[in-house]
Amino acid sequence: MKEKGFEELLTELEEIATKLEKDDLTLDESIKQFENGMKIAKVCNEKLEETEKRIHIILEDGGEISEEKFEVEE
Hints:
The longest helix is centred in the middle third of the chain and has 28 residues. The protein has a two-stranded antiparallel sheet. It is built from 2 helices and 2 strands; from the N terminus they run H-H-E-E. It starts with 5 loop residues before the first helix and ends in a 5-residue tail after the last strand. About 60% of the residues lie in helices and about 15% in strands. By secondary structure, the protein is an alpha+beta fold. A hairpin with a 2-residue loop joins strand 1 and strand 2.
């Protein structure tokens, strides 16, 4: 199974939020949707943190601009 991308996960999270905003779910269905949404939100957060570590930081050093890269720890 292919790992879902951030945008796809975010779309799923938006769909869950829309379902929860409607009043047509039972309490059990609402709880299941909420739990699923929390799992997706955690994965999205992990993806954002991973991406943040990969971004180059631009540092100003004595008038010159240099780049420094975060090393991703595995």
